């Protein structure tokens, strides 16, 4: 995989924030994730360098096509796994926390099997 787990978390955060508000800045990401300004700046710099994020002259961040694809994939994993865990009886809070960890390490094969299973069993 071309991006580390922390990078994936930043991309997912940018995606989530951009769904709520058109303009996303590094300060918004720091508040949402609870990270310091230097940590966010360093991570955003790496994401820009690797072609996942761009920023305009006012410092607003936008996902590139590559960044959006990665963020959407991680977000889909997060929401489906959290929903599945809640469906099988895990508390919603724990399901969300566990999904956040699982989403970065689960194989594509296992995720696709869970996705297929949950869609089949729920009629989605």
Which characteristics define this entry?
single chain; 124 residues; mainly alpha; Arc Repressor Mutant, subunit A; Diphtheria Toxin Repressor, domain 2; two-stranded antiparallel ribbon; elongated
Plain-language structure description:
- The protein is mostly helical and 124 residues long.
- It has 2 domains: 5-69, Winged helix-like DNA-binding domain superfamily/Winged helix DNA-binding domain (Arc Repressor Mutant, subunit A, Orthogonal Bundle); 72-122, Diphtheria Toxin Repressor, domain 2 (Orthogonal Bundle).
- The protein contains 6 helices and 2 strands.
- It has helices at 5-20, 26-33, 37-49, 65-87, 92-102, 108-122, and strands at residues 53-55, 61-63.
- The protein has a two-stranded antiparallel ribbon with strand order 1-2.
- β1 and β2 (61-63) form a beta hairpin.
- α1 (5-20) packs across α2 (26-33), α1 packs across α3 (37-49) and α1 (5-20) crosses α4 (65-87).
- The protein is elongated and about 50 Å long.
SSE layout:
Blueprint: H1 5-20, H2 26-33, H3 37-49, E1 53-55, E2 61-63, H4 65-87, H5 92-102, H6 108-122
Antiparallel strand pairs: 1-2
Helix pairs in contact: 1-2, 1-3, 1-4, 2-3, 4-5, 4-6
């Amino acid at each position: 995989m071309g991006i580390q787990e922390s990078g994936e978390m930043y991309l997912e955060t940018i995606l989530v924030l951009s769904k709520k508000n058109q303009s996303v800045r590094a300060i918004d990401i720091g508040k949402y994730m609870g990270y310091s300004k230097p940590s966010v700046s360093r991570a955003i710099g790496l994401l820009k360098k690797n072609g996942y994020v761009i920023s305009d002259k006012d410092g607003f961040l936008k996902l590139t096509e590559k960044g959006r694809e990665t963020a959407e994939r991680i977000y889909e994993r997060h929401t489906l796994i959290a929903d599945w865990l809640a469906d099988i009886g895990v508390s919603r809070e724990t399901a969300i926390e566990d999904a956040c960890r699982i989403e970065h390490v689960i194989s594509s094969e296992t995720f696709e099997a869970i996705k297929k299973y949950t869609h089949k069993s729920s009629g989605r």
